[in-house]
Amino acid sequence: MPFDEMRLKDGSVRAPYLEVAKWLEGVTSAQLERRRAEAELFYRRGGITFAVYGDAQGEERIIPYDIIPRILAAQEWAKLKAGLEQRIKALNAYLADIYGSREILKAGIVPADLVWRNPAYRPEMAGLTVPHGIYIHIAGIDIVRVDGDDFYVLEDNARTPSGVSYMLGGREISIRLMPELYGAHRVAPVENYPNELLATLQSAAPRNATKDVTAVLLTPGQFNSAYYEHSFLADKMGIELVEGSDLFVRDSVVFMRTTEGPKRVDIIYRRLDDAFIDPLVFDPHSMLGVPGLFAAYAAGNVTLANAVGTGAVDDKVVYSYVPDMVRFYLGEEPLLKNVPTWRCRDPEDLAYVLDHLSELVVKEVHGSGGYGMLVGPHATGADIALFRDKLKADPTNYVAQPTLALSTCPSFVEMGIAPRHVDLRPFILTGADGIRIVPGGLTRVALRAGSLVVNSSQGGGTKDTWVVES
To answer: Where is the Circularly permuted ATP-grasp type domain (predicted)?
Structure first.
């Protein structure tokens, strides 16, 4: 049985959820449905939507919002926060190493081909000194809980992690629609995230930056699936939202076109992939980036957040080595566990996976969004046969993990209140002045009965996450 975050095995309510349990006893399904509809209306009026790439209808969608909050006790969060800080330090050290002296490869801890053959590794970054030595300024690390005390890292997202707007929107909904429940708790705030993000970016400015540091958010444009979040964050931080055509480079310095003439840009929070940022260095067909941007970056005249090449740690095989990175770079034991992972590139692991496909979750090494994966216990015989052939044809493209019994939280669904599986994406900010983490993060919930896939593109929804003083 999965761990129930609200109730103990004897049916009694866990201490953090006592007020939630009382509240649920006093509201009807009709009242909950009205509040759910109001939450959806709030999202629609605010334009808080997302697009699914490849969707034939091409329509903007609302991510379903579950109004019953997820509760974490302050002591649970403290343990999780310490582990996140440790992990992000190790990931930053690994990136500095593989683009520098490559000590971890020389030591034989990480196989060298995981770097050289990784499509997200950018050889152009080798030997470059990035401002303040920080590669991952903004990370979203996906966390799952499978029992009462232990949190596991499911995935590291170091390129352009998204979801912050849903975290902040969910909190506003909680305060507006459930003031009586919210007021019954001492909930740690997340509303200051934009200020924390701006402070992080400003602290990471190049050492030769202008006195009044100028930061911008670079977006691919309005057709990007996360465009709402780009405009939302730029507005909340009070910085300009720009596209590639709004910027230009002169003498290895980046400028923004304004009505008052060119203005130097010191920091670019970029929400487009490496391949598109500079057509002179990467994809020559890109119309989204800025010609000469990489030269300005290499010259140390602008900070890119996140750094080019950070996707090298998003690889699901590299993920399996992160505990070793913690030991190698920090000399510490990992505070957060990894999910046990079989690397199908290894013959012994592959043999085990082929013999246990019906029990395992098989993922593409560079997959995302819940696509390209097999959930063995829920798969048909035809699906398993198809993945068996894929594994034999290209085992290096896959990893496998046990089918975890993800923890559940009470959720309001069509049948009423029922437990649904959840994960958590905290957002970790790393600047020259330290690490910032707002308490909680984005809880994603698998709203379909029995489903373990929480991704919004696969029918998942979101919850507000309350870190409360018990």
So the answer is: 69-446
Q: How many domains does the chain have?
A: 3
Number of Cβ within a 10 Å radius of residue 381: 8
Q: What domain range is 109 assigned to?
A: 15-206+302-337+404-468
State whether 147 and 239 are in the same domain. no
| Cis ω before 92 (30° cut-off from 0) | no
Best CA proximity match to 402, nearest among 453, 359, 338: 359
DSSP line for 171-218:
HHHHHHH-HHHHHTS-BPP-TTHHHHHHHHHHHTS-TT--SS--EEEE
Residue 427 lies in a domain: yes
Sheet order of strands, 398-402 included:
342-343, 398-402, 360-364, 374-375
Residues 179 and 47 in one domain: yes
Number of other residues whose CB lies within 10 A of the CB of residue 176: 13
- pLDDT tens digits for range 14-64: 999 999 999 999 999 999 999 999 988 888 887 776 555 444 444 566 788
The string of pLDDT tens digits covering residues 171-229 is: 999 999 999 999 999 999 999 999 999 999 999 999 888 788 999 999 999 888 888 89
- Cα four-point dihedral sign 58, 60, 61, 63: positive
- Evaluate whether 306 touches 159 at the Cβ level (below 8 Å): yes
Q: What is the pLDDT of residues 87-129, one digit of tens each?
A: 999 999 999 999 999 999 999 999 999 999 999 999 999 999 9
Rg (CA), the chain: 22
pLDDT digits (tens, 9 = 90+) for 129-162: 999 999 999 999 999 998 777 899 999 999 888 8
pLDDT band at 289 (very low <50, low <70, confident <90, very high): very high
Same domain (yes/no): 317, 188: yes
Which amino acid type is present at position 360? L
